[in-house]
Each structure stands twice: as C-alpha cells, then as structure tokens.
Design goal:
CATH superfamily of the largest domain: Thiolase/Chalcone synthase
Structural class: alpha/beta
Number of strands: 13
CATH class of the largest domain: Alpha Beta
Bound molecules: oxa(dethia)-CoA
Strand order of the largest sheet: 1-7-6-4-5
CATH architecture of the largest domain: 3-Layer(aba) Sandwich
Strand content: 25-35%
Largest sheet: 5 strands, mixed
Helix content: 25-40%
CATH topology of the largest domain: Peroxisomal Thiolase, Chain A, domain 1
Radius of gyration: 18 Å
Number of domains: 2
Shape: globular
Number of helices: 10
Amino acid sequence: MTRHAVLAGVGGYLPKRVVTNDDLARTLDTSDEWISERTGIRQRHIADETETAAFMGAAAAEAALRRAGAGAGEVDGVIVATSTPDQAFPATAARIQAALGITRGFAFDLAAACSGFIYALAVADGMIRAGQASGILVIGSEVYSRILDWRDRTTCVLFGDGAGAVFLHAAEGPVTPGAPAVLSTHIHADGRYGDILYVDGAVGQPDRPGTLAMNGSAVFRHAVVNLAAAVEEALAVNHLDRASIDWLVPHQANRRIIDAMGKKLGLAPERVVVTIDRHANTSAASIPLALAEAVGDGRIRPGQLVLMEALGGGLTWGSALVRL
Ligand code: UT7
C-alpha cells in the first residue's frame, strides 16, 4: 500500500532574552550598521542556563502537536537535528520524548549542522513512506551561544538560539494533486569542505564548549551555488516550474543569500519568509521557526506549496518541497 507523509502541525520556541547588535557593540569591535548591512541581523535570542536544546525542543514539539491536534500517543518517533545537544548521550530526542510523556517508539539525534532540519525531514519522510512509523516529531533545536567565541566578531554576531518542530503523520494512498503532502526531499554532502565551517571540540556544555570557526566568504560562495542547484532539483523532480511555488522558507544565514534565492525563484519579496532580522542564524532551528511564524500568523495557508532549503557545516545542503 502506498503511503506518504503530511505536515500536520508546526511550533517554535525562542529564549526570553534578546540581545541587540548595539548590545554586542558595547563589548565588541563591531556596529549595528556592519551587522545589519552585511547579514540583515538586528537582534538574536540567547538561552539562559535552563533553556537547553531539550527544554526548547520539547516546548516547540508540544506547540507542533497542539497545532496538529495530536496527542503524545500518536508519536512513533522523535528525531532531533542539533549540533548543540545537552549531553553526548542520551540523545536530546530521548530527553524530549521523556519530557512529552512518550514511552514507546524511537528517539535519536541527527547531526547535519544548519541543514539538520532538512536532513531530519528527509529521514522521517522516508520512514513514513516505508511504513516504519506513522507519526514522527521532527525537531531542530540549537544553543549556538554555548559554542561561540564571544570575542570573535566574525562569528559571534551571526547566531542565535531557539527551536522549531513539525509533526508528520502518514496518509494512506498516493499523493493526489493539491492535497497536503511532503512531495520531495533532497539531501547532499561534500566532506571535502569540512574545514570551512566547523566546531573544534566538545559541544553543548556551558563549562566545556567547543568553538565555532567559519570562513564566511567561502561558505557564502558554496551556499549560492549549491542552494540554487537544490532548488532546481526539487522543481525538476516534481515537474513544477518556479511559478508554482507559493512560499520560500529558507535557512536564515544571511539576508543577501535569502534575497538571491528569492530572486532566482522569481518570488515577490513578501513570498519569502524572513526571520533573520529578529532570530539571526539558529542553525537547524531556523526553518521550522520561520515556518511556525508564517503559519501561525496566517501568511502560509493550507494547500499552499512551500519550498525549504538550507546549507551548513559538512558541507551539507538540501531542499524540501511540502504542500501544507
Ligand atoms: O548557516 C551556515 C551557513 N553560513 C552561511 O551561509 C554564512 C555565509 N557567509 C556570510 O554570511 C558572510 O560571509 C559573513 C556575514 C559571515 C561575512 O560577510 P562578508 O561580506 O563576507 O565579510 P568578510 O568576512 O569578507 O569581512 C569583511 C570585513 C573584514 O575586514 P577587512 O579584512 O576587510 O578589514 C572583517 O574583519 O569586515 C570585517 N568584519 C567585521 N566588522 C565589523 C567581520 N566581522 C565583523 C563585524 N563587525 N562583526
């Protein structure tokens, strides 16, 4: 029996504390002007010690289940995309599973840096199609504030903390035109470029952090080329043209990359969901957080076609095409 996955609900969580560019400029040789012109970022949310990847991920997952009208009993599995787990193990996903009162099914973390949410969506979609699960929570949760060198102005101004989640459930039968479905996912990696964006050391522990390092302009060049290819791939496989896309929900790394992708798709700027100004780059959380915002405020409506894309450390990149 053919089956496919439907995105039934989405939710997000942002830490309470907001840090503006001017706040950073008080202790760092930077300025609101440089940060906002080069990146589009104006502020970011920064976690306190209680706002761990598991805490934020559980809050986002609860919101996604609520929106889907689903209970914990319908969750067969939890997949968490994170580069900043609370502990090496148990997986953040197992901690979230326990926090939600789920006592069956599977739970695991997945590491694909900023592409993590697209990777996790691809895995969950495949498991649902294969009949291995009927309800999966796909979560991106990150506390990059714990892996930043706060003296390095070339990296620390770029990132923020937060979590986003979607609940996928199975629908029997083939995808029918116009009906809600995860239509396709495409994921890629090229480990030759592992040294242009990496964390050197242990992650996720306030007292023993590894530190993020990035060759920004090299990553920027790969992003523009690889994301364009991933978008073309999604359109070609689904026999769609650019005009069919209702919304672009991109990874939020740099406003200039986001604008270039919107332009490439011929989308009006108001059809591109932008959160980078308020959230900065929240890595694996950025796409589900942006989706939660735009679905929550009624911009993205049921039946619309949403294209998502991301590139991150690995290098990893990918795209997903979903009809809500
Ligand atoms: O999410 C994972 C994927 N990540 C990305 O896609 C990020 C891609 N890369 C980027 O978004 C951009 O490359 C950055 C925003 C990281 C950097 O922008 P850029 O236009 O490529 O700047 P740059 O690195 O070439 O630096 C230009 C200048 C340098 O000064 P000099 O050497 O020209 O004198 C930097 O030292 O800007 C300086 N600079 C800063 N100045 C003030 C770098 N960071 C800062 C800062 N404040 N925070």
